[in-house]
Amino acid sequence: MNFERLQTFRLVVQLGSFSRAAEALFLSQPAVSLQIRQLEKELGVVLLERGGHRATPTSAGDAVLRFSEHVLESRAGLLRELASLQSGSSLVTIGCSASSTRQVIPQLMGELLRIAPDIQLRVTTLPPDEASARLLKGEFDFTLTTDAYLSDRLVGEPFSTARLFVVAAPTHPLARKGRATPEELAACPFALLPSPWTAQRRFREWAANQGVEINVTMELSTYDGLIEAARKGLALTLVAESAIIREVERGDLVIVNTVGLPLEYTIYLAHRAGPLLPALYVVKKAALESRIARAMGRPARVTAGVRPGMVVAS
């Protein structure tokens, strides 16, 4: 029996929706529907009532749901055991940006603590091009990256969605206004990340679609630098949601809303093409489970401190 179909079926039941399950799995709705139909054909029963506003399991579906929960948990236990038996594979390394470290690594760590607490995770923050190059060299097991850095030598698992917001100091005229036109944004100086970070390219593409041109007066290589420039009123900036949550809550920064913003794009968990060692397969599964947890609105399972062995290196 196909584990992926069981996982998809369980998620459709949990979310009550084919479309929400598709969104959580980074699949199209027809792809999710096809997996359910294939599972129904394999078992010879109808699993879901498709009428109304919510997908609900039939009696046969309830039985398969109980079975899937047992099988998938047993499978996770097997993967944990295989990972612990794989000598020298308990340390898994990931290269990613500082924003990914803040935004998505905690959820991955939380799920990994649940699925495979014996696996150690080491995270290194660096630019995406360098992370991809070191991944190809075998210096990392995974990277968190965008589609711009995937290739036929890398396999990418959709993991998260990044959102980029324009922010300003509270005293900035556009901050007081709340919502701005693209033309008003284009008239302001901006501080942005330089190449090879893709945020500036995405923002310029947005501006071109709006018929304006962004006025970049400074390039800074860290979000901390961009945030400080915005806080001092030197420029507007475009930063990831995870980097500004506290500043916005405190009132140190204000989100400037406009048409087409925030910018959203997919973050992939990427690894070299080919078979994965058991420990790496467990981490990839934890990534899938953590994104499902986010779709379900469940909090990440992260303790107050990072346990010994789980190292985040900046």
Which helices and strands appear, and what pairs or packs with what?
Elements: H1 3-15, H2 18-25, H3 29-43, E1 48-49, E2 56-57, H4 59-85, E3 91-96, H5 98-103, H6 105-115, E4 120-125, H7 128-136, E5 142-145, E6 154-168, H8 173-177, H9 182-186, E7 189-192, H10 199-210, E8 215-219, H11 223-231, E9 236-240, H12 241-250, E10 254-255, E11 263-272, H13 278-296, E12 311-313
Parallel strand pairs: 3-4, 3-5, 4-12, 7-8, 7-9
Antiparallel strand pairs: 1-2, 5-11, 6-9, 6-10, 6-11
Structural notes for this entry:
By secondary structure, this protein is α/β, with parallel strands linked by helices. It contains 13 helices and twelve strands. The chain has helices spanning 3-15, 18-25, 29-43, 59-85, 98-103, 105-115, 128-136, 173-177, 182-186, 199-210, 223-231, 241-250, 278-296; strands spanning 48-49, 56-57, 91-96, 120-125, 142-145, 154-168, 189-192, 215-219, 236-240, 254-255, 263-272, 311-313. Strands 3, 4, 5, 6, 7, 8, 9, 10, 11 and 12 form a ten-stranded mixed sheet that branches. Strands 1-2 form a two-stranded antiparallel ribbon. β1 (48-49) and β2 form a beta hairpin.
